[in-house]
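Hey, resending since the last one bounced:
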Amino acid sequence: MQSASEQSEAAEPPAPPEHAYPDHWEADVVLRDGGTARIRPITADDADRLVSFYEQVSDESKYYRFFAPYPRLSAKDVHRFTHHDFVDRVGLAATVGGEFIATVRYDRIDARGLPASAPADEAEVAFLVQDAHQGRGVASALLEHIAAVARERDIRRFAAEVLPANTKMIKVFTDAGYTQKRSFEDGSVRLHLDLEPTDRSLAVQRAREQRAEARSVQRLLTPGSVAVVGVGRTPGGVGRTVLRNLLGAGFTGRVYAVNAALTGETELDGVPAHPSVGAIGEPVDLAIVAVPAERVPEAVADCGEHGVRGLVVLSAGYAESGAAGRERQRELVRQARSYGMRIIGPNAFGIINTADDVRLNASLAPQMPAAGRIGLFTQSGAIGIALLAGLHRRGAGLSSFISAGNRADVSGNDFLQHWYDDPGTDVVLLYLESIGNPRKFTRLARRTAAVKPVVVVKGARHSGSAPPGHRVPVTRIPHATVSALLRQAGVIRVDTVTELVDAGLLLAAQPLPAGPRVAILGNSESLGLLTYDACLTEGLRPTRPLDLTTAAVPADFRDALAAALADETADAVVVTAIPWVGEDGATEFGDGEVLAAALREAVASAPAPKPVVVVHVEMGGLAEALAVATSTRPAAAGRGTASRENRSAGAAPAQTAPPPQPAAPVQQATPPGEQAPGEQAPGEQAPGQQAPAQQATIPAYPAAERAVRALAEAVRYGQWRRQAAEPGRVPEYEDIDEAGAAALIEGVLGGEGVDARGVTLDTEGAGALLARYGIAVRPTLPAPTPDAAVAVAARLGYPVALKATAPHLRHRPDLGGVRLDLATEEQLRTAYAELTEVLGKPEELQPVVQAMVPRGVDTVVRSAIDPAVGAVLSFGLSGAASELLGDTAHRLVPATDRDAAELVRSLRTAPLLFGWRGSAPVDTPALEELLLRVSRLVDDHPEVVAVSLEPVVVAPRGLSVLGATVRLAPPAPRTDLGPRSLPRY
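The structure tokens again:
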């Protein structure tokens, strides 16, 4: 891949660098195999590293790079490849452990292919990857980063010359997704890439991100060997506890104990013990670090230098403990990433994988959870303990469990990437106290929710700050808005850990309901009515409860349930049960198992799958008998295989229940990038589809409200899944002048003396910008005197409105600052006099005159850029009552036609738009179009950081925008659209 520019440079040394080192180009990336590498600019200090790197590259790779035998680099070569101006000549290196594993370089060229400077917008690019690291996706990651650097330096195209035999490098270019041209010249392949991101290049980038991050999590969850660093010689202590839990779970790999105070090889708890990881002498995949914080750097270095792939750091004393701890945490992440390792923690509780061929309990949980279909992630060890206990008590099994502590590196986003196509997980449960990358979380949650439920409970909702140790962007939008946006992404949002468990049990055990119609049956009329009321409260459509009376026996329940499941007018069934009275008048508590068998029999014979939940009061043994998931779950492909022989020296046998019997395997999910949102993934249960044949698992609840709330969440999620299968579209409008709007924005922000924090457009400027997007704002003219008001009215035409626009009176008609339907000059002068007499002088009121518009419903349309979640489109009715009630709907930008329709209809006050109490319905299609145009404006121009249209009067025909405020500011960097990288530390 030797370029003409390189040949030209060989004649004379380049000029010295003219620009400062661009440290913002540094990034940590996850590679295809789940390991990490650091990408950074190459500098003059890297000469020795470059020479060492080149010596480890094969002759074949050197030939592909330079088109000729090139055994070693000359001093001139080394100088050329390490001295850059970071504008016209840029070199990046991928490093692991501080050493180069790959390099990429671009040189700006002119039309003749010779070295050039701006305004030339083309550059030649060349790669070299060490043979030992080829196939890890290093070149693809470097291409993303060098392309981003080139765009920053106003380079729009890359040219590359590749030998036809270098098929791997050709594939890197052709698979990137950029618009490209390809030709064959003088025995080599000539490639030209347009660096403007495309939908395909973004899809390729995100698919690679998903595979890499999922693989990095899989490496943590499926180690072949584990070392526990910090195992004490005497029983007790964190390290010894984790070692005991590993052995007690029956981990199928090798286990080692590490204690720096040991001399010579010995044993602890029957496993080999060594003074260091390096002394083990065999590969170690995962290290559990349980030493004091001040000794962690030494342990991390020991692990990194001997090839450990990942760390679980249980040690405390990091960001949760203050400023010194935050700096210690940053150094921990930097150190681990320099060796290509990922970290769970610090201050973590641990990880668990219940797969039969792994059986990993690398946590402080004393008991291995039962195997099941739920993936559980928590940021709190205490909540993790509570959730594990609650799920165990309810008979639910887990596929994997992670308690990430401060989540300095691996986060909930990484596990969403893993669970998305994990065939062993059907339901994802998340307890989050903060969301480090909300844009990415929303994107990943939407994609995952399209194939399996994602249930989230968020702590620290009202504290106004993240918990200690959590590094997150500050959000300006209310918690209710965040919840609404998560629901838009398909996330099932609950308020408590109890609701998290309730919803998870139902979703893991039952098919999704096809609709909101609920049949209720049971042996207590009162409990049935409570259930009926709860259904109405949750927006479901219950039928009148069927009272089987207290004389009902299990066979009566079976027959009634079978009839309800066969009834086409019911989408779900709630069974209510209380102890029944025997012939001798004594209350019978012991027939729970009999009733459970009867209910399972009815479910098994149902003609179509429908969810069934049970509400029970003091029914002995019923909940336990219904909770059969731990012994009847279907085994996923690859998870029901026999365990490998435990290679731990003296490992103890498993202390948990025997593994479940395998049932029908679950197929691998469709690879990312090949599945549309809402499309059913192989092995996944679609809404209303029959689950794999198995003994019925029916969730039971001790209160009607809890059962119905969980069922309602399943109904709403099922509806979202059906809608996601046919997503809306972002419409095109021919009258939008995107280029004109861009020029107007550039003229404002590019002017002299503009505040770097942004500028609010004046009335004329706001109207002009909105007009470029087909949004007409009714003129509002100042009226500083009565005579000026009369002159303006004559210009606009009667009737007119007179308004006070002082900040304390704006949009507050209830304070008397608005006079409407002024049809004559006399009425206008009278209104002006009344206004100034009651409310203050004209210079205080800032009165304006505006032409009257057709009567309708006053509404408000807003959009704002939030640093945490991005652009948000909001809609509500105008007035103090709506603001006090928080009756505002929100959607993420860009909004689709479906989003706009839902925005209008999701308000509690929405009936006012559709003819409430005999009023005329307003023109909601015109309102939806306005919402879509505002969304397009904000999406097309990130410099538009806030838009407020108030009031927007929606009449039976058409609408009128009476007031508009627009704020512009330089856009913040979009981290979700740049090249793949881990959060910076």
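Confidence is low (pLDDT under 50) at residues 7-17, 629-695.

Sorry for the duplicate.
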